[in-house]
Each structure stands twice: as structure tokens, then as C-alpha cells.
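Quick one: structure for this chain?
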Amino acid sequence: MPLRTAFRTGDQALVREINLSLIMNHLLSNSALSRASLAEVTGLNKSTVSSLVQELIDRQFVREVGLSSSGVGRPSMLLEINPQAGYIVSCELGVDFLSIICANFGADVVWRYHEDTRDLTSQHAIIDRMLALLIEAVEAGQRTYANRGPLLGLAVGAPGLVDRATGTLLFAPNLKWENVALRDILGAAFPHVPVFVENEANMAALGEYFFGGAKGYREVLYISAGVGLGGAVVLDGAIFEGTAGFASEFGHMTMDPNGELCNCGNRGCWETQVTQPALFRLIHAAIERGKATLLTEATGGNLSRLTVPLVVDAARRNDRVAQDALNRVGRSLGVGVASLVNALNPDLVVFGGIMSLAGEFLLPTIRRELAARALKWSLEVTGVILAQQGSDACVMGGIAMLYQTILSQPGNR
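Got it. Here's what it folds into:
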């Protein structure tokens, strides 16, 4: 609901900021609206809307795109978020890869790069490479938007516990990193640029909420399975953080007290049952038991070359070892998802990460386990889908984080 009055004169600036944000959010969700339409959907009077829109045009966040052609009444000038307002750079620091994009303010990707980092053995080498690629992304933005919009911000998603207040990566078990001051490192390389550091699953969940299959849902459970397993809960567009900011570490729920040793130091974490390493372990074990598989030939006998796409390809060709391994992983995923659905009662479960490439095999099994184990009242209102953004979910989430900041305070650019 718009705020038209304030108890003190000093509150007027806050009211204006809220109403600017209200207009921008409506334009983001419903592009090409007229001033009259904005007045109707926001409840603000037309003169106030006109004043606020002009301020957003002056700041280049909004632009006019021509007259309406509805044929009803007088044509009116339509407005939309201005893609040329600036550009955003977003990065996923994965356990064994770096993925970086540069996008305009309309979330159109103008540059992207993905690189395997398994050959980089030290923290120093990985961070140096990340900084070099971020510089390339910024330069791509400068070439594309020369003399138009500035670099609006930079976001990095990392696979571990992140102190959001300081931007410190406190603990990344699968990287074996602790207390890495990522925001300080990035701030030194990119001074005077807003820098955001976030858990990769949180960022990916925002990417799906703003741009993917979770758009329009109120409470979303996001599960990301790759080398590790991350999770997030989005509630009304905001990440549920928990008291210390470390909520949704679902990968470290204990599922088997006597199970595999997890990189976090615990045994039997859910992560040890449902990730890429778990899938590959099952395949290794089957081969050691003498099972024949197309994957032996596909990897040239070197099982360290296993990838999820190779396993999916073998499963499509009716390879029993690949299908059995995917089925076991799917069952373990379904058991955990059913428990979380019973605990959280979300509108939607979104499954992402590299393991989602095997979604055609995993999703039916997850749904079967969910049907067998979830409370029927929760099951009736909860859907399960694959992440529409796929491997881009996290980097698109970086754009969403910048959106949230800019849209909440558009007058402070």
C-alpha cells in the first residue's frame, strides 16, 4: 500500500523512496505501463506518479517507449525499466569452476564466461583467476555501455557459509577455505563499486524467484546439488536467513549417523548421498562388483573423467549401472525433500545445480518419494520443478540482488 502521509516532515524523504520503489517494482513485473496505469495499480494520485516517474527518467532507471496502441481512448505514453541504466557483473565461485556474466539493467546478458578450475590448486590462484575474469566482464560492460550507464554493482556467490555483514566466506567445506574476506578483496580491486557476497544457493534461489520458475510464488524451497548440496528458502522475495544468517544448510542434515564422512566433519550428511560425488561413488562401486557399463568406454577406462552429462547419456541408452545410480540418488533426494516439505510447507520446490541435468531421471523418483512420504495436506499445495535458469541460476541471482538493493532505494544511486 502506498504511503501518502508522514507523521514528521523528515519522513517525507522515506515516503518518496518507498513510492519510487513501488513504481519500479511494478514496471519490473509489468513492463510497458502508462502513468495512468501506474496510478491505478499503486493507488497514488496521477500528479504524484508523474513527478516520481520524471525523477526515475532523470536518473535513467525508467524510459518512455512509445504510445499505447490499444485503440481504447487517447493513446498514452508507455514506460519500462531502462536496460541502458547501467550494467551488472555477477559471478559464481564454484567448487571446481568459475561462471561469470555481465548483464544490462534489463537482465539481458551481454557477456558470459565459464571456466573449469580443477587445475588451480591453491586459494590464491583461484581468487586471482576470478579477479582477472571479473575485470574482463567489467571491460565488456564498458565497451557495450560506453557513455551510457555505469557499473551498478558486482555480486559473487560462494559455496559455503557467508557473513553477509562483512562479505566474509567463513567456511566452504568443499573448497576447504575458511575466513576469506572476499568483499574486502573485491572492494580493493573494484573501488567505489557496490559489492555483494552471498551463499551460492541463496543467490540461485533469488535468480529463480526473479527470472525463473519460482516467479510469482510466495514461499519457495530451492535445492542445489552439485559437488555439494546447498539450499535456500525465499519468502515473499526475501531470503530466509536465520538468526546468524546461516539458515537452510540442508546439505548438512544428518541422514545416516554411520554414513560417509562429509567434508564438514560430520558423518552421513544429506550431501554425501545426493551429489555428484555420491553418484560417481555408486558407479565406481558397481564397476568394482563387476557390472558392465557404457561408462567404462565413455571415459576411456579413466573414471576420474566421469561427468553428469556422460551418466545421463548412458542412462538414456538404457545403461543399467547409470540408471541404478541415478535411481538411488533420486530416492535419497526424495526422502530429504519430503522431510523439508513436511517441515516448511512451501508453495514450490525448485531443484537446480549440475545434478539437475539428470532431472529426467531424478525428478520422477523425487516425486514418487514425495508422494509416499509427505503429508498429503502439504503435498496438495507443493509443486516440484527443475530450475528454469539451470546453471545460470546463481549468476542471475546476483542480478536479482542488485535489483533488490536498487529497487529498494532508487533515489540513492
